[in-house]
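User:
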Amino acid sequence: MPADPRSATTIFCFEDRSVDRLNPATTARPAYAISCASLRLIDHLEALRVPIFGECRPHLAEVQRLDFGLTEPPASPERGPATLLVNARVVPNLNNVALLERMLRDRQPAVVRDSEGKVAMAWLPPGHPSRECDPGDSGLAGEGRMGGPSGDQDTRLGIDEWAERVTVELPAVTELADTFQWPHDIVLHHMRSMSAAMEWRIAGGDYEQIADGVFVAPGAKIGDHAVIDVSKGPILIERDAQVGPFCFLAGPVHIGAGARILEHAALKDAVALGHTTKVGGEVEASVIEPFTNKQHHGFLGHSYLGSWINLGAGTCNSDLKNTYGTINMEYGAEKVATEMQFMGCVMGDYSKTAINTGIFTGKVVGVCSMLYGFVTSNVPSFVNYARLFGQTATLPPEVMISTQARMFSRRRVTQRPCDQQLIFDMFELTEEERNLQSAIGL
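Assistant: Predicted structure:
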């Protein structure tokens, strides 16, 4: 039997300079770990069953190694092996997965670009210049790759230039790949691909269909008197997840392993919950990453929440303008037209809201911030935001590390040195956010 042609191929998943535009969704995670319609790019890459190497921002290198088992390609003066090059911003939808599988199967030199002309994926034949030996790399693969947060820009400048050089003469595939270009794209692609993602999960998963369109994994439970509507998509409940009594579920909905849906909750119109989440109230068309709590009544719509977030009782966000017009998002000093009529908020990891917090339409909340009252503007990372009361203040990283330890303990998660260091690194990396907001009068 001939050898599997994939056996001589490696995957190299890289973050480019544009990954900064995805903050705060990627401040605390590599871009390939963004959940969208319940799927992550890293999971699809692992399913290809070939060795994977990764290059991410330096402050995430240890997290990448411990949580995803990825390291940078081994240093070698030799030319590189056959490589499937994948931009970490590639959306984990089924069209992109089909492109990846086809390139790996065909083993023909080719490059796929996104709508901005950036390299999304490519198959590089054996003998291509490796990152280490490429003479045009200008030494950027050294200190910038292994240094602290200050090396980020130089690192990704180097890999951007390398990716362009090794793909510039490759035949271009006419089909464009979808990539995340701004944080609101997560919600946009989530809504577009949720139904297809659910069908894909059903086809390959270990589920029991307990009612028309309702699929549960072993250990999952649905409480009494649930009202379920699968006219627009199925309901998938993963292992050991619990749905309380008197809940309303309107598909497509994906409930992650070990999640708890509190009594009287309403999940509808494309909701994807990560594992070990706790959700109550009303949630619509939103992505919630693992370990986040929205336990009490309140509305969350068309939003993306990172991990380790807690929304206080009565917290609500707006996802529709009073004019019913399309929503513009502000990212730093840049305003971006989403062309979306419905868009809620994007909230980075470890942020919290107090009771009865109200988040206005299309707001961006950084990592490790505390919110009180009405949130009428974007909130930078590491601040106490109580603009209604005339108070804003910087939150020291030491406070967030103590909070992290208490949260981890409640979920029986061990706080590692790299988790603590991540807080310090994120504080340093987000200083410009706080300075910009101070300059415009937050």
